[in-house]
Structures are given as structure tokens and as C-alpha cells.
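Shipment paperwork, digital attachment
Item: protein structure file
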Amino acid sequence: MGTNIRFVRAAAAVALLAGTTAYATDFSIPLSYNFNGMVHPGESGIPDDLNGYRSISDRGLMIDGAVGSLGTAPIVGATGIGYTIVSTAGPLDIVHLGNRNLVDGGTWTFDLVPDGDNIGVQPAWLPNVDQTVPQTTNVAALNLTLDSTAEVGFLYQISNGGGSFQVMLSFTDSTSVTLTLRGPDWFGTQSPPAPGPGVSSQSRLGTFNGAAATDSGLPGATLNVVEGVVSVPRMVADGLGNFAGKQLASITFMNQSNTRASNAIIAATVRTGLGPPANDNCANAQVITPGPNAGGNLRATGTAASPCGTGDNADVWFRYTATGTGRLEARTCGAGFDTTIAVYTSCGGSAIACNDNGCGLASRVQWQGTSGQAYLIRVAGNNAATGLFTLTLDTNPAIHTDAALPLAYNFNGMVHNGEAGMPDNPDGYRSISDRGLALDGAVGAMDAGMLVGADFMPYTIERRAAHLDIVHLGDRNTVDGGSHIFDLAPDGDNTGIQPNWLPNTDQTGPQGSDLTTLGAVLGPNSRIGVLFDISNGGGDFDVILGFTDNTSVTLSLNGPDWFGDQSPFPAGLGVALQEQLGVFRATGNVDQ
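Attachment content:
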């Protein structure tokens, strides 16, 4: 599912967000950059240039102005904050927190002498490769005083598995506050973990063009960028102190959690002068009409939680007066944070409907409407999460009857709780190639919240450890030219032995599931949904639907490589649609 990115002017920008009553001013922070870690025009393909680009691990963002590049336009984050990045060749362009020579266990150590490969020598602009020590930018000369609604936003990446780092805001009165920003691995489109104390928003800005490998700067990969926002209201709410009226003296990045990774802080912006949303309370609910309605709970100040939420006090309100009697639906599907929806008939009354995780981590709720009745729709974020969303009001929602199909699973190819790190367990998890989906209920996992596809078609997946959980079509021993052949005997590496539950590795033949006991009869509007992924370059496979009258129909499904954020090919004959369900957390490699 894509992420919508809205572009506004970044440097000292003035923006007005929908639903707010006050203007905000963005002050771009000129960070004390210490690394040339993004690929600008003219820097690719010269890894031994003493003054040229160096990656902080095995990748680097491409800032070349091409479609998909981070540097193609002014940038605005999910919270509306504008950012300015260095987009010209030559200058240092990121704050690097880490040590390139220790990344990934020393896989990308600088060359001692120029040798023409894609791993460069230590450049002239890097006097010390150890940049794990605190990196400080002094900002006192900017005279930035935080007000009661001030926010400080950061764009960053974390390589090699993701992790966290700390940001310390120091003030001219000698006080300070330390906050933690987190992010997933910079490869793919995984969502960041839930924000911690003082952090009002933590979300993926998007996926942008990256370098193919190390210091060559040749394009080929995609990298995600995370936006983390800390705010005065959130720091007050979390008991970290009230820093309104204080002048910023410095910003320090320090204490990375993953020593095998590098942290790249790309840009920072201070925003002041923005108040709570106009629909911050029930009495001022925003009037909406059927269809999509733009909304957001940024800087919302509610105090009470909904009946179905967890700490979802950051709420905003909408009002709809029914023009007829019948079923109504409100949904925030596609929101970039964990939302809840509750519906009321009066301010201070009891909820008549409430939902959490009706479509992924977003919400979908239905209720019976009465003509002339005004309904108050409350949207909030679990655990005080905030962000932008689209509230869609549907006056004629579809009502489905769904039946999960009990497939004849033949492979334990997803990692459930308790199965990690045991590749030689004869009854444990095995990947079908070099990866496997991780099912642990955490943010970004396939089983975090309800699993819902197009038209809200729900899916049930096998979550129990040690149970076969996918239908595998293929042969693990021939995948990728035999790169992941099962071990003959236990040896403790991350490639497991052929497990007890797999009598034959050759599963390329037809894999059938007998569904006659369901008694399911297809109607004129029936739909059958299939969730699948295809490793090592993608491809297609056939699905044969056989019926009790001995007729059948064969359909072809296809998909891209399972890695990254790629869209499937157009749907073939008989296939109503074919689209990406999402990108989910997976294992590091093979059977571990």
C-alpha cells in the first residue's frame, strides 16, 4: 500500500493544515554534517575519489533529480513539517552516527589502497572513521524559542536491521531533554515501531532511489526514509518536562542501539506557532459529507479513551446528519498510524459503535443510521499516536459473507513466536528461499491487527508455532540455483536440515485442497481472494478451481519479486484485481 507524500516549501515555510486555525512556521536546521553519504550528480562510479561519496553501509540515497529521488522537490513529512536537504555534489550531507568499518560485522571496511572495486578508501573528509561518539549541532545563534505547540522533526535512516538512537535537545538555560527515535531496516517499506516518550509521530516518509552497492553510487536499490517528530505537548504529556519558552542551544545525536548499523540523519526542522485542530473537541465537530474527508489528529488534546482503544486520547471529531435510514460505515483504511473510530449520538454520551483494527491497524465501523439523526464520529490514535488520515463515510456499505478456505498446507514457511534461531530443529520453521515472514503480532508484522484486502475481504492465517502454514509450490533445493540447499546434518549455521514434516523437497507438482465439505456455492458476485508471494525474481502460477459437476477453470496469478515495494503485473483473464497487500516484517535470512 502506497504512502501519499504532500510537497510544500521547506525553508522557513508557512503552511496551513486542514482542520487547524493557526499558521505554522518551519525553521530548517543547518546540521553539522559529518559524512558525504548521499549520491549527487557526478559522484557515481568513483569509489576511490578521496573527496567523493561514501556509503555508510552497502547503500546510499540517490540525490540526482530523477523520478523517485528524494531530491526531486521540496519535502514535507506526514505531519506537514517541511524539510530541506543538501542536493548539490561536494558538501557533507548527513549526520552519521556509527562506524563504517564496523557495519555488518566489518563487511564494508574501507580499502587500505585504491583498487578499483566498489569499496572506496577512507576519504580525505573523514579524519576518523569512528563516529559513534555524540554528534552535536549548535543552534543558539538561530534564536529558536519553542512555544507550547512546538515540534522538532527529523528525517533519518538506520541500516543493517534498524534500531534506535537518542536525540538530546539542550537549551540556553542549561536544561535539556533526551528522546529516542526508532526505525526499521532501511531496505523495504516496513513501518517504524511505535513512538516512545516525547515522540509525537514516527512514520515512514517513503521509499526512494538508492545506490546498488557500497561506494560505486550506481543506481539500483530503494531505501526508506523515516520521519520522527518530537513535540512540546507530547513531552509534557509523558512527564518529561515543559520546555515552552525555552531557547534551543544545541541538538545532539548519540547512543545508537545497533552497533552493526549506521544511522543517517538527513535533515531537521523546528516548527512553531501551530495550535490544536479546530475539531479538537466534540462541541466543535467538523461537518462532513459522504465520501472521503481529509483529517488529522496532530496536536489533538483529548483526555479520555474510547471503549475500544488503548490510550487513544488524541482525538478529533466529525459530525454527519443522516439523510436516510439504513446502514452507515466510517473508515480510516490506509491511515499511516494505528487509529480507532467511535460513534456517538451526543457529546458525553455512550458510544453506539466502536472499532480498532478493522482494516489492518486502521479502523472500520458500521452502524444502523436513522434519517435526521446527527452522528458524532470520533477518530483517535492508539497510545496517543497522531498523524493524517482520510475518513471515508459510506452511506451504502457492502455487507459480505466471508468464508475462510482451509488450505492443505504443506510447509512451515513463516516464523511464529518461539521458532526463531532454531534452523536445525527437525520440526521447526524452514524458509522457502532466503527469507520468511515473521508472525509475532508486533508492528509491521503480517499478523499485527486484522488482515484485510480489497473490498475489506478478510483473511485468516495460521499463527500457531510448529504448524504447517503455507502452500509451497517449488523446490527449496533448486531455488536460486541451489544456493539454499538443506544441510545434510545439523551444523549450527542458519541453513537448516530437511525437516521431518517435509518428506520430499520437490513440491513443484500440483498442490490441491479439497473444499467439498464447505458446501460453498458460488453466486454471481462471488469473489475468491488469494494471498501469495513469489521469491527470487517473481513469476506466475496457475490456480485451478474444480467444481462438483466435474467442470473446472484455470486462472493465472503473477507477482514481482517478494522483496521491496513493487506492484504486481496487470491482472489476467478471470482475475478481478491483483495488487500489493503490503510489505511486512521478515527474517534476516534463510532458516534462522
